[in-house]
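S., here's the first fold you wanted:
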Amino acid sequence: MSLGGFLAALPKVELHIHLEGSMPPETLLALARRHRVSLPADDVEGLRDWFRFRDFDHFVEVYLACSRVLRAPEDFQRLLSDFAGAQERQNIRYSEVHFTIGTHWMNGLPVDEVLDALEETIRDEQRRRGVRVRLIPDIVRDVGNRTADPTLDWALEAHERGIAVALGLTGREAVSPSEPYADHFAAAAAAGLHCVAHAGEHAGPASVEAVLGPCRAERVGHGVRSIEDSGLVARLAERQTPLEICPTSNVALGVVPDLASHPFDRLRRAGVELSVSTDDPSLFDTDLAREYEKLAASFGYEAETLVELALAGVRHSFLPAAEKTQLAAEIHAEAERLAPRHLGRELQPIPA
């Protein structure tokens, strides 16, 4: 009996994960060899060592290497199929996945063919595995307007095809402002796309304010440095604006020194809506069940609290209302069924 076994078997959703950052070393090496792309290591163990981050710049270096080996539509299909398989093994029923199409556009890829390939694979994997994946094409602040327009155009087309749910904003919020992309987010919202943005990770509360205002963010990726401004925390709680928290990522990239120092529990107790994700699981050597386990170990959460967090992910998702209700009911039912086997007890009542 173990909490880990319970969490591994529990149905879950994931709202903050990057497709390129889900690439395992094995796939990176295989694609690099196929396309004759030079890497700092020529075996899997060497690449795992290289994945041990020194700082955020090193993280970007690794992330861009994963992007650079994606040279043909079938490479994206392989990556997405691998991703869906990993989510299935973790009982992650639904994922909203960041995807930086602008990088691949700059690399000269035929992005219309990439869209065709991803659409085909998303639909195939949903039929085959029952795993639902929807995309969040994201604008990268640091790159500027070079890729913002093509990213928006691609996102709008992907939304029309039913495989994109939001426009995202990523990149270094500490050095690149969010406000220049307000018009892109207005156009996305007018077309029915939701809006999400990374902020409050490597910059302070002002970066969160910037995406809540001009960029109309409905969810904030990370947002952990909101804790530095009690007024902002109160507004997030009052407006029920969700934060997508990635604990291991925050430690690995130096946002917090360790999990004991993480503001997750303080934000939760202040009434801020939170969900749990992995960010870039292959790069941080983690998975979603382990993220839940780490929170339990750091803050003494019982299984009931962790189930509530899983349900919060459903609530914060961009699924249609009827699908949210159905998925929440599945998580409730499975949690109650799994508890005696894995925890040796019944669960206490959990709010719907």
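And the second, which I think is the more interesting of the pair:
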Amino acid sequence: MSPPTALIAEDEPLMRERLKEQLAIAWPELEIVAEAADGDTALALFDARHPQLAFLDIRMPGRTGLDVAAAIGGECHIVFISAYDQYALQAFETGAVDYLLKPIEADRLATAVERVKKKLATPPPDLSALVAEMRATLKGEPTRLKWIKAAVGKQVKLIAVDDVVYFQADTKYTRVVLAQSEALIRTPLKDLLAELDPNRFWQVHRSTIVRLDAVASVVREDAEKQFVLLKGRQERLPVSRQFFHLFKQM
């Protein structure tokens, strides 16, 4: 009997790799036959490999996960992935296989795997109505923070959020750390967290938010100590115990 096959479409390399590792543990028989970082590639790979199952991030460059689901939903079972939970009820009610919230936890993935296994013997549901509802919800989402005004010496500069390595609370200010410099802003960390894209920025400590693309690796010294290592920088950022689960499979 042939093993079940799947496609993973997720634009964040770290998240994609983590999901693969989690699936290898939760469902060793599953064969990942295709990986994509955008919707256009996902559709092309689906046409080439015809997987039975697709894990689709809702937000991707070009065609979104919703666009991909609209195109392949009748031919393939779908598991939606997102940092936002407003779609979840719609996904369950309309027969989508499952819905995973980022960061994906091992026990939640295990539950999804069991549901998917039961669904694979049945034809994939028509997702057209669900996709239309989810698109309407997506249009109503708040715009994520793109730029920050920050003090650099005696000047106030406009900094692209994409250039930030991490944010760190520092007494009355928040440090904005870039690859080669840093700046100060008065915005509290909790307010920043509400405006940043949760697909790209994770809080790893009560005083630290890190950009996922800037993470090189995570080091565990013992059961109580964990540190994030950054690309191109020497400091090690401590991870609070409450956030250990984010990097559990790394």
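Why I say that: The mean pLDDT is 86. Residues 101 and 177 are 28 Å apart (CA to CA).

Talk tomorrow,
H.
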